[in-house]
Amino acid sequence: MKLEIEIDGKTHRVDLNPAGEPGRWTVQLDGQPVEADAHFIRPGVLSLLLEGRAHRIVLDADLAEPALHLDEHRIAWQADDPRSFQRRRRHAAAHGPVTLKASMPGRIVRVLVERGAPVAAHQGIVVIEAMKMQNELKSPKEGRVAELRVMAGDTVASGQILAVIE
Amino acid sequence: MKLEIEIDGKTHRVDLNPAGEPGRWTVQLDGQPVEADAHFIRPGVLSLLLEGRAHRIVLDADLAEPALHLDEHRIAWQADDPRSFQRRRRHAAAHGPVTLKASMPGRIVRVLVERGAPVAAHQGIVVIEAMKMQNELKSPKEGRVAELRVMAGDTVASGQILAVIE
Amino acid sequence: MLQKILIANRGEIALRIIRACHELNIAAVAVYSDADRAGLHVLEADEAYRLGPAPAVDSYLRGNLILDIARRSGADAIHPGYGFLSENADFAQACEESGIKFIGPPASAMRALGTKTNARQVADEAGMPRTPGCVHGLASPEEAADVAQAVGYPVMLKAAAGGGGKGMRAVSRPEDLASAFVAAQSEAERAFGSDEVYLEKLIERPRHIEIQVLADEHGHCVYLGERECSVQRRHQKVIEEAPSPVVSPDLRRRMGEAAVRLALSAGYANAGTIEFLVDDDQNFYFLEMNTRLQVEHPVTELVTGYDLVHLQIQIAQGEPLPFTQSDVHLRGHAIECRVYAEDPDNNFMPSPGRIARLLQPGGPGIREDCGIYEGWVVPMDYDPMLSKLIAFAPTRELAIARMLRALDEYVIGGIRTNLGLFRRILRDDDFSAARIHTGYLDRLLAEPAPASTEHGPTPVIAAALFEAARPAVPPGNGNCAGTANNGSSKSGSRSGWKSAARTAALGGRP
Amino acid sequence: MLQKILIANRGEIALRIIRACHELNIAAVAVYSDADRAGLHVLEADEAYRLGPAPAVDSYLRGNLILDIARRSGADAIHPGYGFLSENADFAQACEESGIKFIGPPASAMRALGTKTNARQVADEAGMPRTPGCVHGLASPEEAADVAQAVGYPVMLKAAAGGGGKGMRAVSRPEDLASAFVAAQSEAERAFGSDEVYLEKLIERPRHIEIQVLADEHGHCVYLGERECSVQRRHQKVIEEAPSPVVSPDLRRRMGEAAVRLALSAGYANAGTIEFLVDDDQNFYFLEMNTRLQVEHPVTELVTGYDLVHLQIQIAQGEPLPFTQSDVHLRGHAIECRVYAEDPDNNFMPSPGRIARLLQPGGPGIREDCGIYEGWVVPMDYDPMLSKLIAFAPTRELAIARMLRALDEYVIGGIRTNLGLFRRILRDDDFSAARIHTGYLDRLLAEPAPASTEHGPTPVIAAALFEAARPAVPPGNGNCAGTANNGSSKSGSRSGWKSAARTAALGGRP
Lengths: 166, 166, 510, 510
Known about the structure:
The complex is a heterotetramer, with two copies of chain A (166 residues) and two copies of chain C (510 residues). With 166 residues, chain A is mostly beta strands. Chain A has one helix spanning 82-92, and strands spanning 2-7, 10-18, 24-29, 32-42, 45-50, 53-59, 67-70, 73-79, 98-101, 106-111, 118-119, 124-130, 133-138, 143-148, 155-156, 161-165. In chain A, the strands form three sheets. Chain A has an eight-stranded antiparallel β-barrel with strand order 1-2-3-4-5-6-7-8. In chain A, a hairpin with a 7-residue loop joins strand 6 (53-59) and strand 7 (67-70). Chain A is elongated and about 65 Å long. Chain C has helices spanning 11-23, 40-44, 63-73, 89-97, 107-114, 116-125, 141-151, 177-192, 249-265, 297-304, 308-316, 396-409, 419-426, 429-432, 440-446, 457-468, 488-493, 496-507, and strands spanning 4-7, 27-33, 47-52, 77-79, 101-102, 155-159, 169-171, 197-201, 207-215, 221-233, 236-242, 270-278, 284-290, 333-340, 342-343, 349-350, 353-354, 357-359, 366-370, 377-378, 385-393, 411-413. The relative contact order of chain C is 0.10. Chain C is globular. Classes of the chains: A mainly beta (166), C alpha+beta (510). At the A-C interface, strand 1, strand 2, strand 3, strand 4 and strand 5 of A face strand 15, strand 16, strand 17, helix 13 and helix 16 of C.
């Protein structure tokens, strides 16, 4: 099974071939052969033995936003599957009018501007609160509030688009 | 939703009716109404509030052999579904030649008789070992070894039929 | 003897108090908001009653409703934990008046010490050293300027009802005072419903060291040593330890005796903490008294061998303290890490949400007071503390090593946490050498984080294996809880679109 | 200083030693059998190597292979844990000869004390009281009869190489001696590969109390108080505690000093335990010395504040003991429960298999040294110990209450365990009053178990709710991790055959 795995901006070619016994793999990593003994202790928890070295690798959440915990590091990756292509496209498509995104999940406590209003750069747009911490989100640029997608009391997810400044 | 639940040999009629809000139920238990607030904390772990009393109820394994842990008790139940009918039939059908069942999961270390051999009551038939503990299984009655279903080295499950004495 | 205690709190501290109740054969009544129906404190309590919607004002701050639930459920006492109603003297008084024991000091003592300004007056009466400054709220920026002039800059503006750094402003230049005063007032008003602000001289590079006291209702009071709480981020404690590496037996005795004096002079009862600033010359200045159980009480329990919540309950039952000051001996060293749902890589933004994966540490010398479990959804409505991880060992050096070991075992997936921050602090030379003060952590965080190492082939291969098992690992599903299936079985188990897409993708390359 | 330690063991003790290594910045090498590939010790180690098939003779008892792995992996020491190779003097010697440090006593001391008969000879030389009887193996039933005659019945036959009650027979009448002798011999041969059996006078209703000693390689030796291990089932320890409720400071000192004398006279080094029988008149009799870390070492760690595995490693590094006898102080009370995979309702039959559900206790004063996790398949090839649950509190009474609280939090599903047995013991009046001896538990178990209470409506309603959620609860699946879906959604989610069957069933009744 051939895969491309992108970590820290580097893309690696991985070829996984079962090596007979359950859990044993012969891996070609960027052309280099590696013997791997992989065992899922429980869902998302992988015991991986590489030439004697023992690693505990834990899937952060699920494979929608793939990331793993290794030693003290949280490492995100992307694989060559349609979803990740889409994601890249979505990232690429962040042009045109600038969007204002929620910096954390939370509740909108105040909206400081009205739709259509002109705004200065760094002018406050909305105030979002979570876990007793308030956070004023400021306009990334001078312009006009083209869209205002939330109102006071709304609950928003991290990264959700709150407003569009054009 | 109507069910019959058998616990400790007593059968109870239970009628579960959703009470609007998620997790809220109006229960008719043997004709008596009870308000229940049920929430699965995680698979098999139930937080059950009955008129203010808080109970943590844990499914022992799965619903093939249904049992639950409540306070310090492990309580088995049977529900009115085909599988449990079958089980009852199977139990009921334990007549005729007497079977010798494994008292624990383990490995057969010795078989002490041969097929067809006559055996006295309490004569040793097989020796089974698990967790450094050996256990000699004896014939439940005088008779003849009609069947011998295991040999030394076999791994057996608890309750598995090892031999039939007739 | 108390028969049934209602715990007017949530999360790890509610669970910790429930456990103490069960150990003392006392029934525990939990209360919960809609966000906490699946909380551990509801699961482990003997009774549980709903308070209301998630926001604290609609649930855990509804003193009258809580008192009513206590009455209806037949509880004879209420333990407030920390936060929420724990320092609300009116609530304590309402409990007293309705014949329900409030497990904490009498309302009168809470009032005498409840605001920082009142407490500073009590300190003066008890002859306790405190920072120069005023002992009353400031009426205007002008009055603030006068006091600042008198004590000399830099100064600190503080909310009298404050805590956790809210309503605090350090001012080093007169021209900044007025605006800082207004800001502190409005923040105080928003956070505590009182805009009373006072001013004191700012101590340079102070340590935050606090003394745990226990007083029974018969006039006996002891101190249980100190806690070193200098590792703070924006005035929020992050790591606490006991004993303090810099407190000598003599300083401990002097601080402890001053703390006991203060408590007795205020007619204090039950558990309380006197916070001090200690400067480089080991002068100590009274800061405030917390009239409740502290978040960081476990480090004191581990080095003294006492159970503070047991003792709180015994004191509330009118029992005399079961030991005297001379029985109190410190042994070993304890460190506590406050595990928060916040993202150190994103300016410590809160990170509520579902805990998709949880691997918890354990074994020798590790205690975890924890309010979470795998699958728990961390609400956005309360403070971000998930858990308290505490390490105990014979020496500070070994306690640090043990904590690092436990942190390596600890994985929280699905939300971001500050677990990585603790590793950085515990490995820092200044922390190891105990060269810390309340500004230490903010300064450490101002330095560039150590560059993350090259990860090598391991994560790449691991990622590939997770991808290979992908059809078997939809969120929270169990099917891959074996070896990653390989060979024919695997290709068979891969979803159609996936293989197709991959084939195509591969076909597209030479 | 040691850089890398191979742990020649499995389960909770392997993990506990790995943790100590990490705390001391030493790399930990795990070895595993095919049954343990998914074991926690493999998961948490820095390196892991396969030994062979599940049976111990094919894996954890393969000394030469383990030594070879140690060499190849560059380990400079081997920690044997308990059981397996831990008391194998030949293995210890092979380690010494190949320049790999065996973390334990020198082979010579192990030989001197390794068999109970040898140990009794050493005891005599050290002037240590022991039970009357022989100090050599018995050649024949006739010789046994002579010795029995001399010391007087009742007597106890014991395997010289024995442990855990195997090869032991109590004999109260001369006519039973011969058959018991043969039985003991064959059982000893099977269990230990040696049929050496000796005989001693049987002490009536004795307590089993043992002294923990630590000796460095420079002739210093200290005792760390005693452990009370009288709660046994068929000579297998079930509950241990420290300190013993019946040992006075004077008796502790006399037993401790005798233990230290014995250890020094045998040229002992590292951690060891001297087991005694203590009769009602507080006479103590040497039983045997265990030349290794004990299963129950945590209770000693909790009351002394020391970490025995850290100290074992430091001693193995040639360091002198970091403290003297006068530094050793006991504080509080610790109790350990050995959680076994066995079925108390079915004659304590072993119960290996998959742990389908696991809820573990935690919080103040609770330590768990644990080798299991949810989903782990307990192998049938090793002893049935799953976990050690240890409770620490200021007093024995509170330690018992705390353990009961922890047991209430503990649920192990899918296999049977002895968790319920601990509740019964800890609530027993004789145990509370510390009226215990080595026959106590077998006698308690002979009494009818307390009749199980009427469960009331709760389990019925719970069972119905599990059934209602049935389609959502296939083994190990995650879909029901929310509220039990109700109303239309549920009926929709019920599988066809089920509803049909139910409809039919209901239709069949008036």
